[in-house]
Amino acid sequence: MEKAKSNTLIACAVLASSSLSYAGESPLSLSASLGVEYDDNITVSALDTTTGQSDEAVVLDFSASYLALESENSELELVYDLYQSKHDTLSDFDLQIHTLSAFGSWETEDNDLGLYYSYSTVDLGSDDLYNSHSLTPSIAFAAADDWYNQFSYSLVLKDFDSAPGRDATQNSISTDNYYFFMDSSAYTSIGAKLEKEDADDNELDYQAFYLKAAVSIPVSYGGEQIAKFKGKYQRYWRDYDNVTASIGEKREDDQDMISLTLIKPIDDRFDVVLNYEYTNTNSNLSSVDAEGNVITLSVAADF
Length: 303
Known about the structure:
The protein is built from 1 helix and 16 strands. The protein is mainly beta. It has one domain: Porin (Beta Barrel), CATH 2.40.160.
C-alpha cells in the first residue's frame, strides 16, 4: 500500500491473509523465500506428537497473488501459497502445504468489511495428513486517530486422511486492536480469541482462550532505516471436555509462544530474514508437554 493511504488501509494490509506488495500497475505479484531452519524438537501439533529430536531443514515459501477486482471501495484478491520443508535426517516430518484463498474487502463510510476463504491440503512425509476449509467474515473500524480495531468470526472444517477421529469443526471469535505510530511505519497490537473445537473423537473436543500481543517497528541508524523488527507473544489455555483414556483424566494444555523477526532489506526486492521462535507447552498429556526452539535464516523476494 502507498504511504499516502490512510491508517485504515494500512491496517487492512496488516490484517490480510497475504502480505504481498503490488509492483506497478500489475494485478499479479509473486513472492518467495528460501532458507535453512534448525528445530531442536520436531513437533506435529496436529497429531499431538513431540519427537524430542532435533534436525535441520531447507524451507521454501512461495505465493502468487492476483488482484481480481479493485474499485474505489472494494477489492478481491486471489492467492495461491506453497510451503515446503525438507529435513536433513527426519524426512518423515517433511511438511508440504498448498493453500488456495480469496480475500474480499469492502470499505463503507465507517467500517471495513472483510470475507476470507481458504482451502488447504497438508502432507506430512509422503502421506496426506489433512485438508481444511476456512471461512472468516470480519468487521473493522478506526476507533480514533491511529487506532484500528477488528472483530471476526471463523469457521474451520478439518478432514484427516489417516486419523478420522480428528476430523473436526472449529468455531472461534476474535478481536485485534492496532495502534499505529511513527507516521504509520510502526504498530503495536493486542488481541484475544475464544475457540471451540468439536471432533469426531470426543476425547479431542476442547475450548480454548488465546491472548496475543505484537509489535512491528523500523530499525534506524544514522537517520536511515536499515531493517525492521517484529515481535509476537501468544499464550493460550485449552481445556478438553472429556476424559482422555491414556491418562485417566481430562486433558489440560497451556502454551507460551514468543517469535522474534529481523528483516534486513538488500534492495527494493530482496530481504534477508532472521526468525527465532520459542514455544513452551505444559500439558498432562506427555506427548504434548515440551519446549521447542526454531531458528530460520532465509532470503525473501517480491516480484
